[in-house]
Give the backbone structure.
Amino acid sequence: EPEVTQTPSHQVTQMGQEVILRCVPISNHLYFYWYRQILGQKVEFLVSFYNNEISEKSEIFDDQFSVERPDGSNFTLKIRSTKLEDSAMYFCASSTGGNYGYTFGSGTRLTVV
Amino acid sequence: EDQVTQSPEALRLQEGESSSLNCSYTVSGLRGLFWYRQDPGKGPEFLFTLYSAGEEKEKERLKATLTKKESFLHITAPKPEDSATYLCAVRFMNRDDKIIFGKGTRLHILP
């Protein structure tokens, strides 16, 4: 069964440092997403990406965040200057669009110290 | 504001004790309602998509139903391996392609 792959599974970083979270979506999917889940809270939408551009972003996705699909297979989320409150599980997801469900990756646990 | 509300927050059942989880939504137009299962430390795992009132989907011990304002996830004769958090998510009309999640129901099945 095709799956969405995320690396690393866990990343610890110093406050103020830049981090890049990586994702390999399912190969024939066209829509890509990042969500995050702070411990004990709900899964929150960050950004959607289609046709090499952002199609929608949430209020959380401020200027410190950016996404990129650099080579047609990887999909990355960059946080320029991490804050303590960025500590969370970050999930990548992809879909074929329409009314199909998203396939989520296993997540990257980001810990900012 | 569009919202997705799940109840109860947590549910403990004996093995074999059937029950239902609820997901209600306030929305101007629904394009799809999704149920996911999430195990601790893992990503959401897709279970069902429902599109229109009256629709039902089944998978093993799970059955999802949809009305105009809510969805139920019925669990029949659950087993301990059904223990997980069950998430409901909704895609609204005119909201591009994002889905919005509820807080989930933590289900614990006692052997």
